[in-house]
Specification:
homodimer; Phosphoribosyl-aminoimidazole Synthetase, Chain A, domain 2; 341 residues; 2 domains; alpha+beta; 60s Ribosomal Protein L30, Chain: A
């Protein structure tokens, strides 16, 4: 791991230099990875398991875009790794290691970086991977956290986004829309005043601490035709799963919602759009061939994560969500899109 | 590859949306990589060569920090990949693939992104790797280009930064300081007025288009004890090679300089500090055990890249550079350091 030094304020509450940042706070996250050299090298190595393919995803998160400047540092760190681990789950892969590039607007407070490292530790422990390298920089821009995650999957078993066929059933894990409502709450805590404190806390937690569905990686790898995670909104990601030649008509009432999301929807019907188009769910959309549905559902059941059959992919139809009277729901925006907000 | 859309200005000279950015300009860079899925997936896979370790490095470059906002886009792209490929050379590894995360302040001009992609194409063709994935985002900050490079090395053959022993000779490739002088020229083109246009162009090129010493990866892998690339200044990186227990006294006159650097130094003795402490050389520092020197020098000679023996690592000495009268040169700053500039 290499980095630029922070030489100012070495006697204060801020990090004194790059060596302190890396060796005190980050190197413990690389313990046990021989190829990480305690983050003292410019590069790292991994020995792939025999008969395995390595899987890669690289999704940075940027303050003011993917999280709030004043989010808790442990939550920021968790989210940075969780977004990337979610891609591994969708591909049927198990996370192994990750590289971290930190672009910091200034030398961080020791308390802040300690909490950030704690969040990374919690996440990597939960997801089964360790830090092996990266870089630190000072940036004139906002805090930016780049993660490249490395996963492992049996050779040839990677589950692509494309390749679903007409007749495949589409399953969605967990519940949809909670993170979008959590984001609305994060922006304006006075929202959803008819919900209980616990319900609001659940929504906020879904936004701040996404839970990649790694327990579903096995069922996906063994029984799915294609899969992706819901990061940019259900409809946008359904369209990606369907590809250019297929579509799916999903009944809104078939979309799994949490009790808080149901309560928020009951109090305000406009919440429906946020549920359908909001991002950050990090649930999985999984296309399963008819002959594999029983095995997939059994295997998913054993994982402890609920999956819901929300419809069938068909040729020559557009992907839509239907209201209870069968009318396609028109959305102001079909999914997360920075420029059109 | 995933990304956020750019929906404004779709009729103008700027990219209309994320699909155009990725599919028109970036996907061609992934041609031939089956596991990249034409950049239509959220993740990619690689099948490691049997008996090999994979090597990873992740170094972003940020406008205003590592390059100038108005550098030519092809040069920016080249530099982004070259910095990372340089780490592979130092580890004895061969680049295989890379992930690219682009954080753009706004939807880019089509001309800009086309030239950027051309720069990436030239670099990946030169370095022997291809794009396999990544992400695009809109950022409130400056343009930032994150590369994670993936290399391959025979299992167990990774050359670490640490591990040099007393008595090892230190070799440096090419010439030192050109990039630092090129950076000075980039800031103020009126500098070094005694140099010829060609000499100034060479210095500028060394800064704008660093050449990773990949041809030395084989000699390093086969004969070196430890190595790293010179990215933060010769003295700082010599100290890293020496580690906590060793040091080296290098005579300034033994440091290989290019004819333009010699000319600049002759005209202004203060140039010496820039040569010693400036970054961005991307030459290699290589520690070789005495019994391997002959084989290393022969092998390096066959690579076509010059290497120079600049001294011997010793116990219990500090790393210094000595002037012609044998006095250690005191530097205002020992190497690149963003905060203390």
């Amino acid at each position: 791991m290499s980095g630029k030094s922070f030489e100012r304020d070495s006697s204060g509450s801020r990090i004194g230099n790059e060596t302190e940042l890396i060796q005190t706070y980050l190197a413990p996250l690389a313990e046990g990875m021989a190829g990480a050299f305690g983050l003292t090298d410019d590069a790292a190595f991994l020995r792939p398991a025999s008969g395995s393919d390595l899987v890669f995803s690289s999704d940075p998160i940027i303050a003011g875009v993917h999280f709030f400047h004043d989010d808790r540092p442990a939550d920021i760190a968790w989210k940075a790794l969780a977004c990337n681990a979610s891609d591994m789950a969708a591909k049927g892969a198990a996370p192994v290691a990750y590289l971290l590039t930190l672009a910091l607007p200034e030398a961080p407070e020791r308390d802040w970086i300690a909490a950030f490292a704690d969040g990374l530790r919690a996440a990597q422990s939960e997801f089964g991977c360790k830090l092996i390298g990266g870089d630190t920089d000072v940036t004139p821009g906002p805090l930016s956290i780049g993660i490249t995650i490395i996963g492992s999957v049996a050779a040839g078993a990677f589950i692509p986004r494309g390749g679903a066929k007409a007749g495949d059933h589409v399953f969605v894990s967990g519940t949809i829309g909670d993170a979008a409502l959590g984001l609305a709450l994060r922006r304006d805590p006075s929202q959803f005043s008819t919900l209980t404190d616990d319900q609001r806390a659940l929504l906020l937690d879904r936004y701040l601490r996404p839970k990649p569905r790694l327990a579903l990686a096995g069922p996906v790898r063994s029984h799915a035709r294609s899969a992706l995670d819901v990061s940019d909104g259900l409809i946008k990601d359904l369209r990606r799963l369907a590809g250019a030649s297929l579509g799916i008509a999903v009944k809104f009432d078939d979309i799994p919602l949490s009790p808080p999301a149901r309560a928020a929807l009951a109090a305000n019907p406009n919440v429906r759009d946020s549920i359908l188009a909001g991002g950050d769910d990090y649930e999985l959309l999984i296309a399963v061939a008819p002959e594999n549905i029983e095995k997939f559902v059994t295997s998913a059941g054993e994982s402890g994560i609920r999956v819901h059959d929300i419809g069938v992919l068909e040729s020559k139809i557009t992907t839509v969500v239907l209201d209870p009277s069968g009318v396609p729901i028109a959305l102001r925006r079909p999914g997360y899109d920075h420029f059109s907000r």
